[in-house]
Amino acid sequence: MHTVGSGTAEWLNIYLRKKKDLVPLPGALSYSDGAQIACGFGTVYEGLEKIGICGNDAVLITGLGPVGLATAMLCKAMGAQKIFGIETIEERLTLAKNIGLFDEVLTAGKENVRQIRDLTAGHGVERSVDLFR
């Protein structure tokens, strides 16, 4: 195998040979668009597939930045029955409330467990995704 440079170049060559990991971008998408989709959605999709989101699930997403919003979009597309979000940053709370993906968006705090139980008739959620740093 021919490699250029040092460090992880050899591993990069191996990785780049996997055709499933490389997809051509449609002309309407920039490199930045593609990177955001691959990072924000690709990683989340893999995780959601592993935990098995379905139409019977109520899902709690903590951390509503770009990856959290991508999580909500994918949960909705996968048929989640209810989607709840928790966040600390006011701008993210406002955005999450306005985009219509969530059944309820809560400010992070000590009452969140009680709030989620109240919203789910005491049952809680079947799946949760923690995206707080």
Tell me the layout of helices and strands.
Layout: H1 9-16, H2 31-51, E1 58-62, H3 66-77, E2 82-87, H4 90-98, E3 104-107, H5 112-119, E4 127-130
Parallel strand pairs: 1-2, 1-4, 2-3
Helix pairs in contact: 2-3
**Fraction in beta strands:** 5-15%
What is the C-alpha radius of gyration, as a whole number of Å? 18 Å
The helix/strand series, from N terminus to C terminus, equals HHEHEHEHE
* Total of DSSP H or I helical runs spanning 4+ residues: 5
Give a brief outline of the structure.
By secondary structure, this protein is of the alpha/beta class. The protein has helices spanning about 10-15, 30-50, 65-75, 90-100, 110-120, and strands at about 60, 80-85, 105, 125-130.
Name some characteristics of this structure.
133 residues, alpha/beta, 4-stranded parallel sheet, 44% helix
Tell me what the structure shows.
By secondary structure, the chain is α/β, with parallel strands linked by helices. Helices cover 44% and strands 14% of the residues. It contains five helices and four strands; from the N terminus they run H-H-E-H-E-H-E-H-E. A four-stranded parallel sheet has the order 3-2-1-4, with helices on both faces. Helix 2 (31-51) packs across helix 3. The radius of gyration is 18 Å and the shape is elongated. The model has no long low-confidence stretch (mean pLDDT 87).
